[in-house]
């Protein structure tokens, strides 16, 4: 899995979620983007060139031509970097040496990577999963579409390509209808640029004739993003079989998975809630950040299983499988049959569908959700991460 971070995020900001996935056998790569979205990114000295820093770029979160241009510039960098990550993964699996590694102290970084030689399933078409949070989720949508539709042409001269791989490139071979995407709090504004609208109106690769439809598309929202009505509708269009329609529907394909955990904030998808539980509760009105991340992990792993990806089973503790006396047995593993049902059997885990905003639970469960600040400003919480990191 390749995971793209959001605004104010870094390569280390999602260690709980990504470490949990790794503990089940998923090799996860979390690049740090140098587009000005990280609090501070360091480009180290190499072959005589001096090291330099990429500072955080403060850009409005409201749509305008200037904002569209700035976000397009950031996306160009992000998509290029995701392509470089793919190239590096192929080299690592082939055992080829990488010359631009940073050695920390006396550690031999190339030696650490050698253990993955001939062990990564990265050459099979569609074998790599793509995931991201917020701006990172938007980056993933733009990346897989840009690669999959690299032959598509737009009749409008103002339309642009932010990433244009060649037909013979390895990444064009990798992105197929079976490529799975996992979108955490997809922030849709970067996808609305007039220059890339032609791509926005095309469906994700899994909706092609030979694809599985929504079965390998998973969108997990925070409650804050669920309450952000405009973004929610745009998200549903993005992951539907025809994003060009005003009303998102899936008539010919299975629907995607859409969930949100109650009383969760935008930053609940990252390590923020684990590191700052008091601040998360008092300021963001979010509860139990560790459970939110466990639910997210469970859903991602179960979607992987149902799409034929071999991962370890989930523990009874994570599945909250209590006996009649309330005891949860330790050390037991099993398939997580309940997490994708969406029938209310997992408390505080709400399933949504494309047609409506209601969840498949009783009204009382919805009433227990917390009140949040204006959902329109939920993405601005990334600025809080940047401030605290600084």
Largest sheet entry? 6 strands, mixed
The separation of the N and C termini measures: 29 Å
Q: Per DSSP, what share of the residues sits in E-state strands of 2 or more residues? A: 5-15%
* Overall 3D shape: globular
Low-confidence stretches: 359-376
* Count of helical stretches: 13
- Sheet with most strands: strand arrangement: 1-4-5-6-7-10
What is the CA-based Rg, rounded?
20 Å
Alpha-beta content class: alpha/beta
* Total count of strands: 10
Chain-averaged pLDDT: 85
Helix content: 25-40%
The helix/strand order is: EHEEHHEHHEHEHHEHHHEEEHH
Main attributes?
single chain, 390 residues, alpha/beta, six-stranded mixed β-sheet, two-stranded antiparallel ribbon, 13 helices, globular
What does this structure look like?
The chain is of the alpha/beta class and 390 residues long. The chain has 13 helices and 10 strands. The protein has helices spanning 15-23, 65-94, 109-114, 135-148, 170-174, 197-200, 223-226, 229-238, 272-275, 277-282, 289-306, 363-367, 381-389, and strands at 2-4, 40-43, 52-55, 130-133, 181-184, 217-220, 257-261, 314-315, 333-334, 349-351. Strands 1-4-5-6-7-10 form a 6-stranded mixed beta sheet, sandwiched between helices. A two-stranded antiparallel sheet has the order 2-3. The chain has a two-stranded antiparallel ribbon with strand order 8-9. A hairpin with an 8-residue loop joins strand 2 (40-43) and strand 3. Helix 2 crosses helix 4 (135-148). The longest helix has 30 residues, at 65-94. The radius of gyration is 20 Å and the shape is globular. The two termini are 29 Å apart. 41% of the residues are buried.
